[in-house]
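The records we work with from here on pair a chain with its fold. These numbers are not coordinates but entries in a learned vocabulary of local backbone shapes. To see the layout at work, look at the sequence and tokens printed below.
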Amino acid sequence: QYTQLIARRIREIKVYCEIHPFNKISLNLIKKLNPTGLILSGGPNSVLDKKSPKISNNILKLNIPVLGICNGLQTLALQNGGKIKKSLSREYGFAKIKIIKNSKIIPKEWLNKSINVWMSHGDHLSQPPKDFKVLAMSNNKVISIIANEKRNIFGLQFHPEVHHTYMGKKIISNFVIKICKAKNNWIIEDFIKRKIIEIKFIVKDRKVVCGLS
């Protein structure tokens, strides 16, 4: 459900985006889609599990901005030489973070304040990868935002897409608009009209059963 919410937040700022399962998208397909950026959403798996989802290092060499959220941050960090530790207790619910270093991804409203965010994780980043800076820490001493600004790779330990996180939509917007430089000219109504025309063309005079949600 977090993945769907992330996509919704991006579409709310009038930017087109697509959701692809990690095990069904190839490097060639990503090249064909030619995205302005990638977001790795969270998930229930521990990155310390051998069967946990991985991201191809070739994808990280495409020179496009990447944002890892929760499990996505941990995957990025671990595969770039960072260290992940199992937490003694799962951190779930509200937490407060403090900005240590400013960055283009961080809303200006967050500076010099203690910010409410929504956490949901069992593991945590104990040591960031080389060339990554720690931008924020939580009140529980958990690394909450990391960045390699030269490569435009960012990681958030919290969930910016939920309404519990103060101005979370702004940090998503900063990544999508400022960093990825995506154009916010996509309108959901236009998409719906195109899809209706497309479905009518495929269906013609046949009957259809549609199941939603």
User: Anything to note?
Assistant: The first strand starts at residue 38 and ends at 40. The helical segments are 2-12, 27-33, 57-60, 71-79, 168-179, 188-203.
